[in-house]
Amino acid sequence: MVPPRVDARSLSSYLPYHRTIRGLSRGRSLSSWVLAVWLCGISSIAWADEGQATKIEGQCFGPIRYFVTVGRVLSDLERESLQSQVQQRLDDINRKMSTYISDSDVTRFNRSDSTDWVPVDQETARVVELALRISQQSEGAFDITVGPLVAAWKFGAANTENEDSQVPTSEEIQQLLERVGYAKLEVRLDPPALRKKVPSLELDLSAIAKGYAVDEVAKVAKRLGYENHFVEVGEEVRAAGQHPAGRKWFCGIEKPLEMERALEFKVPLENISIATSGDYRQFRIVGERRYAHTIDPRTGYPTDGQVALASVATADCSVADAWATAAMVLGPDTMQSLAREYRLGLHLVTRDASGSLQAIRNERYPKPVAEAQVAGPNWVVMVGATVVAFGLALAGMSIGVMFKRKPIAGSCGGLANMPNQDNRSPCELCSNPSQECRELGRGAKSAREAAEHTQ
After folding, report:
1. How many CA atoms lie within 13 A of 70 on its CB side?
2. Which domain holds residue 282?
3. Overall number of domains in the chain
């Protein structure tokens, strides 16, 4: 990556560097320009402008916001093209998989009471096939047919009543379970179609569609040539390449707190996706009991609250999205075992009976970084660069004096008080001294004369 252009005017906020570059710009020696170039470079490292990236945002799937950041500044034409193609891709997914659009594949399938094959788009069939595969792997904890149970517990689109409304009875839940279950759904890819085993079966792809949308938007960015990009749809993210500041992209993970929003940690992302689910934002309190919004498709009841937050890291965001939901249902022990089997990065925050929280993280999940590593320069590298740069500067001075027989020009950098073997200050060699240098030289000369008089 080409570092940003830095000049004396742009460094006015960083006064020490600004003054040094301005002072050196009056000189003409090799050492002055070496030091000036080095200071410009160090300023680029320490204060890399976040504006080197271009960020677009918009809305999809109803109220959900999306954000796309690419690792360089785009022209107006490039920005408009990226925005247009991302929005077009998201709208296309929504038209096929939304439960709110009357002629989408999902709506047509849900409205049908036939047990024959219902033709759908190839893309819809592929997403359903992936969902069914994860349903099998998760032992039924992830299930795209759970919609009627979610509605019965007044979550999702049906969440229009107050917190004191009644919960479904055990009889009602048993009746709903007869029309819920991934095993009651079939999919084929050629020709693409879906089939119900029970007429009242319904689909809801919301627990996998956001992650799938992240994957597809990332493909749009890559197709347009933006290898360095960061995509977020809802709370699901995917990153590729590097941030324009020369580091990895970072994703923040929240603390599972009900009454406030706080960051738990940040993790670096490079060619990986992260999806996160939790029970601390959406829940109902009926009487004295708290009900989480995640429903266990196998029992028909909300999860028991043992898992407060589940974050899954893997290559495809669609896979991470589905497994993050499954983790809320499965609990820590089973989910950790399945994460090992299917090579998933996993971060869980569990809650005990007293409400205390405890984090569990496996080795495949990206290692959190300290705040100092997220922003700001690498001071070890910078100190090393300082030593090398000043060595080059002094070498330049020596070359100019010894071989070109030209006096040193510009700022002395404090050499006035360092007399040579003849007890003369190096500043006396300067052909273009500043007022500050003159004062330093006079002070050094006075001090020398006073010392000689004392002797």
Report:
1. 23
2. 147-180+249-377
3. 3
